[in-house]
Amino acid sequence: MVEPFGYTPENVKVKAGIPVQLHFQKSFSGGCLSYLIIEDFQIEKDLDKGDNLVEFTPEKPGIYTFHCGMNMYFGKIIVE
Ligand SMILES: [Cu+2]
């Protein structure tokens, strides 16, 4: 969920080498949380109110950060 106070949950766990589909469900319109950045997977995306699908394949285990357009709200993708 993407809510006015940030991401819920803040952390998601996935497995290395397996394609990931992350759904960002945005509960409101506008705000800087409308822009999603996941630098490590070259993702920059406008999020609309409702469901937004992001797809990538993490090749290596590690902890990768995603954040809003202004770097105010964060979450982590934990790749195991
Ligand atoms: Cu922000």
Automatic annotation (TrEMBL):
SUPFAM superfamilies: Cupredoxins. InterPro entries: Cupredoxin (IPR008972), EfeO_Cupredoxin (IPR028096). Residues 6-79 form the EfeO-type cupredoxin-like domain. This is EfeO-type cupredoxin-like domain-containing protein. It comes from Lysinibacillus macroides. The lineage of its organism: Bacteria, Bacillati, Bacillota, Bacilli, Bacillales.
